[in-house]
Amino acid sequence: xxxxxxxxxxxxxxxxxxxxxxxxxxxxxxxxxxxxxxxxxxxxxxxxxxxxxxxxxxxxxxxxxxxxxxxxxxxxxxxxxxxxxxxxxxxxxxxxxxxxxxxxxxxxxxxxxxxxxxxxxxxxxxxxxxxxxxxxxxxxxxxxxxxxxxxxxxxxxxxxxxxxxxxxxxxxxxxxxxxxxxxxxxxxxxxxxxxxxxxxxxxxxxxxxxxxxxxxxxxxxxxxxxxxxxxxxxxxxxxxxxxxxxxxxxxxxxxxxxxxxxxxxxxxxxxxxxxxxxxxxxxxxxxxxxxxxxxxxxxxxxxxxxxxx
Length: 309
Hints:
The structure is a single chain. This protein has helices spanning 14-23, 30-34, 38-43, 114-117, 119-130, 142-150, 175-198, 231-235, 248-253, 275-282, 297-308, and strands at residues 3-9, 25-28, 50-55, 71-86, 99-113, 136-139, 203-205, 212-214, 218-222, 240-244, 257-259, 265-267. By secondary structure, it is α+β, with helices and mostly antiparallel strands. It has 2 domains: 3-150, ph1033 like fold (Roll), CATH 3.10.590; 197-308, no CATH class. A hairpin with a 6-residue loop joins strand 7 (203-205) and strand 8 (212-214). It is elongated, with a radius of gyration of 22 Å.
């Protein structure tokens, strides 16, 4: 069964929070984990479990349930990529924080209320605030799934809807629910990027085929794959291009086409393995890529080297 951990990050730790998110790491001072079951709790977390970080909230020394109606300035959902390990390499400027886990950012939400978080998460974060940032670990992901479904929509394109999360059974394997949860969180990120890219337009031009289409047919496609991009790279518009759902997005994603260093579409050798794909890709060959620039060039070079080859 997957687990969800909750950690409160106080206002003075803002810089450390940003560094940790950028580096895909979270760490503790050893004395923090020496308390009670702090270290065994953190050591119980496995790759694929979730870590929820909350930053800047109200006074924590209130009775149990006191954050039910509170507002937290920032709530960040991450997934654990590397279980507990020790490392003294300097990452944060003020201390070593040698007891660490690896994390991948999935969602970053502002001004989240206790009602949206749900009772379990709100109380866990309040307790963490009173325990100097210790992790409160709970079995399952039902509370996190409820939080995600309670979040407001983020301006998705016409005709798009958030996928529904399955109800999480209490005593079965959670791989299906976890996959759906990650899908929803990634789609929320995609929605925000689309909103920035489209700027409120009703129609938009695909960068690859240059067809002008209703925005429901346009995806904010990562040039360097999201799974291999840093947090900063994921959110940079220079790593995003408008690619249509009429074939361009999939042809590029799987490397059947690529963008040359002169900013033109070219057919990749792997397209020759499938005549129909070669024909579809061939129709795009030579097109000048919309929005090609020196800022996007390194991402297209990464795609050529890592997806096409």
